Structure formats: structure tokens, C-alpha cells
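Hello K.,

You asked for the raw outputs rather than the summary table, so here they are, unedited. I folded two proteins back to back in the same session to keep the settings identical. This is the first:
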Amino acid sequence: QVQLVESGGGLVQPGGSLRLSCAVSGFRGDHYAIGWFRQAPGKEREGVSCISFSVGNILYTDSVKGRFTISRDNAKNTVYLQMNNLKPEDTAVYYCAAGNMYWCELSQAIDYPYWGQGTQVIVSS
């Protein structure tokens, strides 16, 4: 049974930082990717960043480039999303998701069949 557990969300002031973690268990196979998605109230779900455990490619949506960094710890089966210089528009529930693929991509959330429960990030003064 595949499980993804996010942690690390919270309330932070604009300009602050948070690090989200996604612990993955039960996933079979070597060719998979982890994606971070977010959904703000009244908005559609948005792909934020992803990383491939197969070929190692990394993607970011334009609005977070230069501020967010995705990384992985293979030994711990954990993916991190370091979020710096947070802005109010980053406020959302953040989800990590897993799917079988060589190259990670962010355009099709349907390619990620396994999802965590989400963690709330609030950026406010």
C-alpha cells in the first residue's frame, strides 16, 4: 500500500521560510516521480515542483523559481520542498503525490495516482 505523508506546513510571515517533507512508503519500482501540488481556496490545483527518482529531472512552476528548492533523500524515501521568501500568494494546502514515470512533469496531476493528505501553508503578517 502506497502512503505519502506530508509535514512541515504552518503559519509564516511574508519573506519567511518553511520546509515541507513528504515521506513515501510502499511504492514499488524504480521509475517514479514525486510532485508537489498546491490548492488555494477558490482556485484550481497547481503543480509546484517535481523530481524524478529515475532520471533525476526537476521542474518548477514559474512563480516559485528561485524561491523553492525540491530535493530528495533516497535513504529516507523522503522528498523535501524548501520554500524561501514566501509570499501571501503561496498560501495554500500543499500536497505531495507519486506516480510511475521516468521524467517528472507538472501539467497532468492525473499522472500521479497516489496523494498525501496535504499540509496547510499560510503566509500572512
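The second followed immediately with the same parameters:
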Amino acid sequence: QVQLVESGGGLVQAGGSLRLSCAASGRILGSYAMGWFRQAAGKEREFVAGINWSTGSTRYADSVKGRFTISRDNAKNTVYLQMNSLKPEDTAVYYCAAHPSWVIAATPATYDYWGQGTQVTVSS
């Protein structure tokens, strides 16, 4: 079993930055892929970024490339999402997710474990 707890959300003006954290506990092994997803009001949950826990390889949605950076601290069992140049359209609940695979999937249904989510609101 894996438990994920997100933190770091909040209210920020357009152009600002936030850093989200996802603390993982339980049976996190090197072969896990970690993902950040978001869900805006009335919309489907969408992939934002992912990282292979062991290799550090990353994957990003086109909408956040060049603005967001995903990273991990293996010693702290924590994954981060640094979000810069935020836009109002980035407003959503952001979720951390994990699944036991080398592949960084972009489909929410692939992931087995989810955090409770953290709200990010970007004002114009």
C-alpha cells in the first residue's frame, strides 16, 4: 500500500510561482512512476507531468512544457512540481499519483494510488 499526501497549493497571481509537494509513504519501490494530474471545475482529470522514481526520466504535457518542472528527492520520498509563469487556465485541483511501472503513463486510470489533492488558483 502507498499513501500520498500533497501540499503547497494556494492562491497566486498570474505570472507567479508555486511549488507542490507529494510525500509518499508505504511501499514505494524504485520501479514506480509518479504523476501529477489536475482537474479543473467541470473538466476531466488531465496529465500534467510524470517522473520515473528510479531513473528520474520525466514527461510533460504540452501545455506546461517550459513552465513546470517535476523532480524527486528519493531520501525524502517526495516528488515536487515547480510551477512558474502560472496562468489562470492552470487553476485546478492538483493530484499526485503513483503506479508500479517504469512507464510514465498519461492516463489517470493507469494509476493505482492517489493523494487527496491540493487546490491551485491563479488570478488574472
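The chain has a mean pLDDT of 95.

Happy to rerun anything if the numbers look odd on your end.

Regards,
P.
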